[in-house]
Amino acid sequence: MGKTVLIVEDEQSIVDILSFNLTREGYDTLEALDGPTGLQLALEQNPDLVLLDLMLPGMSGFEVCRRIRQAGSLVPVVMLTAREEEDDKVRGLELGADDYITKPFKNRELMARVKANIRRVGMTPAAPGPKPDSGAPLGQRVQVDEERATIFKDGAPLDLTQREYDLIRFLAARPGKIFSREALMEHVWNYEGYVGDVRAVDVAIRRLREKLEDDPGNPAFIKTKRGMGYYFGE
After folding, report:
1. pLDDT-based confidence at 82, cuts 50/70/90?
2. Measured at the alpha carbon of residue 68, what is the angle toward residues 163 and 101, in degrees to the nearest 5?
3. pLDDT for 55-71, tens place per residue?
4. C-alpha closest to that of 142 among 171, 121, 122
5. If you ran DSSP here, which 8-state letter would residue 132 be given?
6. Residue of 185, 211, 214 lying closest to 198 (CA atoms)
7. Does residue 175 have a cis peptide bond before it, meaning omega lies within 30 degrees of 0?
8. Nearest to 97 by CA among 8, 215, 30, 219
9. What is the distance between the terminal CA atoms of the chain, rounded to a whole angstrom?
């Protein structure tokens, strides 16, 4: 059975192009021309990925994304936007979107992102490399339970998104090793040879710190090496 991509976009011409190219790559498609219909299909049809425009009639893409996450769905969401404003991209990521791509986009780039996000969900664990045993300590205060894909801090489970879980697990399995934003996009986001906007990494790190750290402004777990990248350093 093929993977299904839900396209939520109000311009029929773009929907037709996306549907044609996705079908040619072997995907099934669902289509919605407004926000409420897109939200309904996302929650009822359980697609493998959602391509979500931000400017939609009836309900904005921001609100659609927020409600998808509020319902507990972990479906990968890739935002489609014609806007260049960084605030829009950051807002979408903070609401739970996994990635974004700015119009006009090349089909090759879009397909790479679709494949990477669907592949990430199908990977167990999502991030490659050394893995602790279930319940194994990542540090004195942080533990991982791979069977439940849950990170515990001081014995209490953290409410993390799949991406946040993947990110801390990847870094914590290699304590002290510094990874650039590009390397994290490649290993955690699964974009091979990634070159481009890496703002998604900074947003994910900031959100993760807000849930993990005692003082997000002075992190003890997910640390920054200025000019180089991030590392786990309890």
Report:
1. confident
2. 60
3. 999 999 999 999 999 99
4. 171
5. P
6. 185
7. no
8. 8
9. 44
Long-range contacts of 174-180 (CB under 8 A, 24+ apart): 174/129, 174/130, 174/231, 174/232, 175/138, 175/139, 175/231, 175/232, 175/233, 175/234, 176/231, 176/232, 176/233, 177/231, 178/225, 178/228, 178/229, 178/230, 178/231, 179/229, 179/230, 179/231, 180/228, 180/229
For the chain, strand residue ranges (E) read 4-8, 28-32, 49-53, 77-81, 99-102, 142-145, 150-153, 156-157, 222-225, 229-232
> Does residue 184 contact residue 192 with C-beta atoms inside 8 Å?
no
Six token digits for residue 125: 């664990």
DSSP H helices in 95-231:
107-122, 162-172, 181-187, 199-212
Residue of 3, 103, 71, 40 lying closest to 31 (CA atoms): 40
Q: Smallest Cα–Cα separation from 131: which of 172, 92, 100, 167?
A: 172
Query: Hey, is 62 helix, strand or coil?
Result: helix
pTM score, whole prediction: 0.72
- CA angle in degrees (0–180, nearest 5) for 234-182-68: 80
- 3-class secondary-structure state, position 116: helix
Measure the CA–CA gap between 187 and 211, rounded to whole angstroms: 22
In terms of Cα–Cα distance, which of 71, 59, 57, 66 is closest to 97?
66
> Are 114 and 76 a contacting pair, CB within 8 Å?
no
CB atoms within 10 A of CB 1: 4
The residue whose two tokens read 């994910």 is 204
Question: Tell me: the pLDDT tens digits for 175-190?
Answer: 999 999 989 988 888 7
Dihedral in degrees, nearest 10, Cα atoms 191, 109, 95, 42: -110
